Amino acid sequence: MRNHEVAWVFQRIADLLEIKGAPSYKVRAYRRAAHSILALPRPVEDYHAEGRLTEIPGVGKALAGKIDEILASGTCRLLKELEEEVPPGLLEMLEVPGVGAKTAALVYRQLGITDLDGLERAARDHRLRTLPGMGGKKESNILHGIALVRRRPDRLPLGVARSLAESIREALVRSGLAERVEIAGSLRRWRETVGDIDLVAASPHPEQLVEVFTALPICEEVIEKGPTRARIRCRPVGQVDLRVVSGDEFPCALLYLTGSKEHNLRLRSLAQRKGLKLNEYGLFRGGERLAIACEADVYEALGLQWIPPELREDAGEIEAALRGELPRLIELDDIKGDLHVHTTWTDGTADILEMAGAAAELGYSYLAICDHSKSLTVAVGLDEKRLLEQKAAVERYRKRSTEPYLLAGVEVDILADGTLDLEESVLAGLDVVCASVHRAFRQSREDMTARLLRALRSPVVRVLGHPTGRLLGTRESCDIDLEAVMEAAAAEGKILEVNASPERLDLNDAGIRMAKAKGCLLAINTDAHGPAGLRDMRYGVGIARRAGVTPDMVINTWPLDRLLAYLRSAANT
DNA sequence: GCCGTTTTCGGCCCGACTGTTTTCAGTCG
Ligand SMILES: Nc1nc2c(ncn2[C@H]2C[C@H](O)[C@@H](COP(=O)(O)OP(=O)(O)OP(=O)(O)O)O2)c(=O)[nH]1
Ligand SMILES: [Mg+2]
Ligand SMILES: [Mg+2]
Ligand SMILES: [Zn+2]
After folding, report:
1. Which residue puts its alpha carbon closest to atom 31 of ligand 1?
2. Does residue A519 lie within 7 Å of nucleic acid chain B, judged by its CB?
3. What DSSP string runs through A150-177?
4. Which of A35, A154, A160, A186, when mutated, tests ligand 1's pocket best, judged by the most ligand atoms within 8 Å of its CB?
5. Which positions 31-50 on chain A have a beta carbon less than 7 angstroms from any atom of strand B?
6. Which pLDDT score, from 0 to 100, does residue A147 have?
7. How far apart are CA A307 and CA A285, in angstroms?
8. To 10 degrees, the CA torsion angle through A50, A47, A67, A57?
9. Contact between A244 and A209 (Cβ < 8 Å)
10. What is the pLDDT of residue A401?
11. Residues A148-166 as b or e (16 or more Cβ within 10 Å = b)
12. In principle, which of A56, A305, A308, A457 could form an S-S bond with A321, CB 3.0–4.6 Å?
């Protein structure tokens, strides 16, 4: 799959063209094509082979030719020419907040500066302020910006961003100045990482609310502040945008700030074509403001079904909504149980009884106890004897209490050679066996793929736990031929886990999309190590929704009898 | 450079904030 490669070339061409001063529509054409290619459900090579490149939105004859060139040679002539003309070092300057294509071009043409270091020296030496439209403030802002870029402020993981966003939301609500405050942006779209936190508020006193916002104790720096919008940097991490509008304007402001940018663009051009104007204040025909009470009213006026935020990426959802063919996405309420939790038998913080109680509070009808196996010594994993004891304990609980139904399971380690950490004869007696990799992550693609395939071939294994092994921001995904693993899983009726723990989110949205295309079944599990962890389910559901997952594909939306029947029958084949 | 349920040519989303400027360009959301 070379979609990233092709998109990267187009993105780079767009940036270089922009610095060169090419017409903005041309620049946008390359950006649009790059986005479309990233959003493709299949490899761009397939479209190429089928002669269907121009079916990709934003790809016409010229860009199809360039894709052909890139696939053949890894690059294209236009890119090479641009790199001769425009020093590629200028591109790193675009990372600096407040520095765009015009500034990069200016410092290059007038001062001969070709990279970030050169820009920094020029700012230090006060040479920037000699340029037209530049002054002392911009000079120091650029120095500040360069220092920030050098610190490499990463995108925040979803879980960290959620709790930060909630706490700021609470503070704004407590001020009493806001009628409503909602989380928008990529966080509302449940992206696994977010560049910033976007909040939108309805208030009769926008300026006062902005004051409260910028005076929050968590605020380290006010980046920008106006009458309706402010942006702050938080300690220790994170940037937060707040947009304030009136109550009437709120639905359109929420729609605007939820994005994505590309989705907004599509909505606004649809509106245009209908003789309407859509902005963050409302939907207008001529000077007249149409009555809009909620987001759905806007979509309806544009001839669309309401589109769930998780799908708003301009990745085909507009076309589906036009045809009225949006999927009925899975919801938290569809989840009937959790099939992967730990207890004090290994490294959990709560015993079986407490976890069952917590599951009951969530209204679950089943819960699978899946503790670690013996080779995971840091977690005091269970050996065969202890596992049998735990199974007996689970069965004792089941006699006493009917809801939730407890499944006796295990999260058995997949050893380096793909064999399992526990005797198959013992595993065979369990209700559900989840197999996961916890060590030897750095194997070659070949070895790792063979390892997972071997584990999946074991008749006792039902679920592949956190399939790629990635930890958000900490550990890269293992090198795996996921397609091969998924094909095997689909063929043998094995289930792929969507691990909902916010540090994992594994499979992620792209992985789930692939699994869906291969026809795999999924289980969305929290991997909870205590009662609070069970609430992470929402993260997994959010990621699954981004991939367009419907309830039937997820086995823990099934009623207990169907689930047990499936686990038993599959185990016997 | 792409594209069309008004168009195969003439459009291409729309607005806030900052710094620099006496009226707006650049950048960003
Ligand atoms: N109409 C329009 N809306 C935009 C544009 N840029 C951004 N927005 C809207 C949609 C975005 O989701 C929203 C918030 O902007 P952000 O830069 O924070 O992006 P977003 O939250 O989607 O992703 P992030 O994870 O923060 O990088 O503002 C634009 O150029 N036009
Ligand atoms: Mg954002
Ligand atoms: Mg933002
Ligand atoms: Zn695990």
Report:
1. A261
2. no
3. HT--PPEEHHHHHHHHHHHHHHHHHTT-
4. A186
5. 33
6. 96
7. 22
8. 130
9. yes
10. 83
11. ebeeeeeebbbbbbbebbe
12. A305
Q: How many CB atoms lie within 10 A of CB A561?
A: 9
- The structure tokens listed for A93 are 């300057």
| A432, A371 Cβ separation under 8 angstroms | no
Strand B closer than 7 Å to the CB of A110? Answer: no
What residues pair up with A373 in beta bridges, in sequence order? A382
Residue A152: the pLDDT is 75
Show the tokens assigned to A446: 């070949």
Q: What is the structure's pLDDT at A241?
A: 98
For the segment 116-155 of chain A, residues whose CB is within 7 A of strand B: 129, 133-139, 141
pTM, to two decimals = 0.95
> Which residues have their alpha-adjacent CB atom under 5 A from ion ligand 4?
A 436
Q: Are strands A432-436 and A463-464 parallel, antiparallel or unpaired?
A: parallel
A285 touches strand B (CB under 7 A): no
Interface predicted TM-score (ipTM) of this complex, two decimals: 0.97
> For residue A266, which nucleotide's C1' is closest to its Cα?
B13
Q: Which one, of A379, A341, A292, lies nearest residue A524 by Cα?
A: A341
Name the pairing type of β-strands A197-202 and A219-225.
unpaired
Q: Three-state SS across A358-419?
A: HHHHCCCCEEEEEEEECCCHHHCCECHHHHHHHHHHHHHHHHHCCCCEEEEEEEEEECCCCC
List b or e across A539-551, with b for residues whose CB sees 16 or more CB atoms inside 10 angstroms: bbbbbbbbbbbeb
- What gap in Å lies between CA A302 and CA A119, rounded to an integer? 46
Among A169, A171, A221, A161, smallest CA distance to A195 is for A161
Averaged pLDDT, groups of 10, chain A, 573 residues long: 96 98 96 96 94 96 97 96 97 97 97 97 96 95 95 89 97 98 98 98 98 97 97 96 98 98 97 96 94 97 97 97 96 98 97 96 98 93 97 94 93 97 96 97 97 97 98 94 97 97 97 96 98 98 98 98 92 53
Give the closest residue (by CA) to ligand 1 atom 15: A185
Give me the domains of chain A, ranges plus CATH numbers: 3-151 (1.10.150.110), 157-323 (3.30.460.10), 332-571 (3.20.20.140)
Say which amino acid occupies A456.
L
Residue of A27, A187, A198 to test ligand 1 pocket, by largest number of atoms within 8 Å of CB: A198
